[in-house]
From TrEMBL:
<dbReference type="InterPro" id="IPR035911">
    <property type="entry name" value="MurE/MurF_N"/>
</dbReference>
<dbReference type="GO" id="GO:0047480">
    <property type="term" value="F:UDP-N-acetylmuramoyl-tripeptide-D-alanyl-D-alanine ligase activity"/>
</dbReference>
<keyword id="KW-0132">Cell division</keyword>
<dbReference type="Pfam" id="PF08245">
    <property type="entry name" value="Mur_ligase_M"/>
</dbReference>
<dbReference type="InterPro" id="IPR036565">
    <property type="entry name" value="Mur-like_cat_sf"/>
</dbReference>
<feature type="domain" description="Mur ligase C-terminal">
    <location>
        <begin position="302"/>
        <end position="415"/>
    </location>
</feature>
<keyword id="KW-0961">Cell wall biogenesis/degradation</keyword>
<keyword id="KW-0436">Ligase</keyword>
<feature type="domain" description="Mur ligase N-terminal catalytic">
    <location>
        <begin position="16"/>
        <end position="83"/>
    </location>
</feature>
<dbReference type="GO" id="GO:0009252">
    <property type="term" value="P:peptidoglycan biosynthetic process"/>
</dbReference>
<feature type="binding site">
    <location>
        <begin position="96"/>
        <end position="102"/>
    </location>
    <ligand>
        <name>ATP</name>
    </ligand>
</feature>
<dbReference type="Pfam" id="PF01225">
    <property type="entry name" value="Mur_ligase"/>
</dbReference>
<keyword id="KW-0963">Cytoplasm</keyword>
<comment type="similarity">
    <text>Belongs to the MurCDEF family. MurF subfamily.</text>
</comment>
<dbReference type="Pfam" id="PF02875">
    <property type="entry name" value="Mur_ligase_C"/>
</dbReference>
<dbReference type="GO" id="GO:0008360">
    <property type="term" value="P:regulation of cell shape"/>
</dbReference>
<comment type="pathway">
    <text>Cell wall biogenesis; peptidoglycan biosynthesis.</text>
</comment>
Amino acid sequence: MEIAELYKCFMECGKVTTDSRNCPEGSMFIALKGETFNGNAFAAQALKQGCRYAVIDESEYAGEGTILVDNCLQALQQLANYHRRQLKTPVIGITGTNGKTTTKELISTVLSRKFNTLYTEGNFNNHIGVPLTLLRLTKEHEMAVVEMGANHPGEIKTLVHIAEPDYGIITNVGKAHLQGFGSFEGVIRTKGELYDFLRAKGGATIFIQNENPYLNGIAEGLTCVRYGQTAGLYVSGELISCSPFLSFRWTAEGVSHEVNTHLIGSYNLDNMLAAAAIGRYFGVSDDDISSALASYLPHNNRSQLKETADNKLIVDAYNANPTSMMAALKNFRQVEAPHKMVILGDMKELGEASREEHQKVVDYLKECGFDRVVLVGPEFAAATHSYQTFQHVDEVLADIWMHKPQGYYILIKGSNSMKLSQLPECL
């Protein structure tokens, strides 16, 4: 089936699902394959549960209501790109090593003050999530903010050719997914694929953190709207306090605004300034920008402050890499509290650099002088004999129930697979 024909079927449905357990009435089911499942086998079930069509790529599952294509994943991606081209909604593409999800949400919160804005939900930022996001676009949407993630070279290139962004922002580049990228330079090249697409498009605008040498090094030939902590930029900012919530001042055209946020961490200052710069570029009023940033509430275990009957917790357990781990520790070191404790989980996908990067964290911990340090995972355990270590989160939970900390300010940070998000409930 040609993509134009498939698109007509999609327009009859208006919604796409890839999950046979979630089939809105009249939607289109696309049968994707994974390591442990074959979506084709669930096509009949999806049709019974309310889907109008089921897109399959194995003829043995054909029947009434099915649409046979060569490859369902490619069909999903081509359909999303075709839909994006029909609507011509301005798209801002966002990627980066750290902060892209928070920045995406801040940008969307600001733009929503003026525009009907579609944005990536959760972490739907891969080769499946990006097309699903684009297929949620309607004629009513005036802006779209599409997050793009990657852990291997070439992945951003694939995603930008699906989303075809008109504007771009790379939040930063750092040491993450080194096992997949091969090196830090590989990270820079892959994130830079967003810039490459926009440069080839001609006349495209990017929003760039002014003080980042790596981003400036790959931004040649692009129109740059600059934000950062240097005076005189399109949007300039400075930290007021971070004890524990971030308060900052942003300035544009000589006019300053103070904002008290609900985000933990001085490292979120650049994320706030990015949202302010993009909002201002698209004509959101300064007052609306400040109000939107002040009202944003973090979730999904990202820079959240949780107060329990026994302790105060900074929960940043959704992800971790050497760059974000050191930023979190440096911020926590500055927090004023009588008793401080950290619970850190292994940083994943670092390949040959893993032992060295975990050792750097341990060495820095020795400088910090925290009252108590708990390290979780085999990489941290191999890096130190000075601190209490556990192999798995279950062991930490058992220890906490026996020796429950009380009266501590506690930072919890680790890769999502370490499951440290289980800890707040018992602390």
